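Q: My labmate handed me this sequence with no annotations at all. I'd like to see what the chain might look like in three dimensions before we decide whether it's worth expressing. Could you predict it?
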Amino acid sequence: MPVIRGRFAEARLYLVYCAALLHPGHTMPTFAEPEPYTRNVPPLSDEELGLLIEEGRRQIDRQMADLDRIRNRAGVLATVALALIAAVMGKLADVLEQHWSLIALWAASCAMAVFSVAGAASVLSARAVLGRTDTRLAAQGTRPMRASLAEAYVGTVSIGEETVRTFLTVFRDAVTLVVAAALAFFIVLGGTAINEHSTNKSDETGQKCLTSTTCSVPPPPR
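A: Here is what I predict for the chain of 222 residues:
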């Protein structure tokens, strides 16, 4: 599995996931390479081996369930972010008449919402690598089969843990982006409303001055 480390690793990984929408099917990177289990399972009784296999199955099932929950939430997040983008774009004409600072904040809000949609979509569509045990290979493995199967579960569960952790991090970053985009958009709405109120007040004041009665010097007698 490819790994992204170093400075700004989380931001770089998020951008890789967003770019993966253009290249589906690739194995997605993680923050750390799952450590391979190279040691043999110590001699255990049949009951202990059975318990180890059962715990391995439960852990893999939990990983799949966690991944399904993350993807379901990512679908909801993508819907919310798309609605936010529609609202932001609906204010384009009004924002273009405002100060450049509000225009810049509006553009930042739009960009963060778009990146949030891309991150949520990548969680939905990216290829997730989870540990699995091939029954056919297990049947062809070394004997006793129970010990071989237990060793296989021990060696594969770490792959799914790293994948779930990475997908959860990408989803969390997407949530952060959509929240920041919404807050920036609310600030833009507030600034636009204040400016419009000030403009309307100035117009009303000007109209009152134009219609007010003024005293003039009487014309000289003829």
